[in-house]
């Protein structure tokens, strides 16, 4: 999931990861980015040429950042989000990189045969586990898409006890390394899958 090394005194830019999102002044506008985008932007993960997939992309921000940083990416979400997602990708990925990005429908746990097993170096997901009824399908999807060498980066905020249960189930299936955790705000900054263990 996302491994975020954090030391409040290390760098000013890194201290922005102390929050669930960070605000920047870009093009004379205040822009808020989620932590996983910040983590990728810092170059802590080599994205060049990595076969990657983003789950539950929503607007596609994380996938767009990953693609701009060199990943060969499939950006996924459920069917109702695809038109908006494809439009965002088209508007934000330069023509020279459009061929390295694909927008595709993926409902967790369904039609996984369309996504080859063991074919991804990197799986991305930002704030994707919040509905308890989706947890089994999400875990099944993560398992299907990953291999021993796949790195899974998830950025999440633990809001409820059910979210903690998801992390317990995740640990049963993957070797998990947690990043920064703020107990006062109940925020995990990251988790990293280093090896995929058998069920």
UniProtKB/TrEMBL annotation:
Gene3D superfamilies given in the database record: Vaccinia Virus protein VP39
Catalytic activity entry: L-lysyl-[protein] + 3 S-adenosyl-L-methionine = N(6),N(6),N(6)-trimethyl-L-lysyl-[protein] + 3 S-adenosyl-L-homocysteine + 3 H(+)
GO molecular function terms listed in the Swiss-Prot or TrEMBL record: methyltransferase activity
Principal localisation: cytoplasm
Protein's GO biological process: methylation
Gene Ontology cellular component annotations, sorted alphabetically: cytosol; protein-containing complex
Domain of life assignment: Eukaryota
Keywords per UniProt: Cytoplasm, Methyltransferase, S-adenosyl-L-methionine, Transferase
CDD domains listed in its UniProt record: AdoMet_MTases (cd02440)
SUPFAM superfamilies per the UniProt record, alphabetical: S-adenosyl-L-methionine-dependent methyltransferases (SSF53335)
Coiled coil: none
Subcellular location per the Swiss-Prot or TrEMBL entry: Cytoplasm
Protein family (similarity comment): Belongs to the methyltransferase superfamily. METTL21 family.
Name of the protein in question: Protein N-lysine methyltransferase METTL21A
Species per Swiss-Prot/TrEMBL record: Cyprinus carpio carpio
């Amino acid at each position: 999931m996302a491994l975020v090394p954090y030391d409040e005194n290390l760098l000013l830019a890194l201290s922005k990861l102390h929050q669930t999102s960070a605000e920047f002044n870009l093009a004379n506008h205040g822009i808020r980015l989620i932590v996983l985008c910040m983590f990728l932007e810092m170059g802590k993960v080599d994205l060049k040429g990595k076969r990657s997939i983003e789950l539950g992309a929503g607007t596609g921000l994380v996938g767009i950042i990953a693609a701009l940083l060199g990943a060969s990416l499939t950006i996924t979400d459920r069917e109702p989000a695809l038109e908006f997602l494809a439009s965002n990708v088209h508007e934000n990925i330069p023509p020279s990189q459009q061929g390295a990005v694909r927008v595709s429908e993926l409902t967790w746990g369904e039609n996984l045969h369309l996504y080859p097993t063991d074919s991804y170096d990197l799986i991305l997901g930002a704030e994707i586990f919040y509905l308890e009824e989706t947890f089994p399908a999400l875990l099944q999807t993560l398992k299907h898409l990953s291999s021993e060498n796949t790195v899974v980066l998830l950025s999440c905020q633990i809001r409820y006890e059910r979210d903690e249960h998801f992390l317990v189930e995740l640990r049963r299936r993957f070797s998990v390394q947690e990043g920064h955790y703020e107990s006062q705000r109940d925020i995990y900054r990251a988790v990293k899958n280093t090896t995929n263990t058998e069920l």
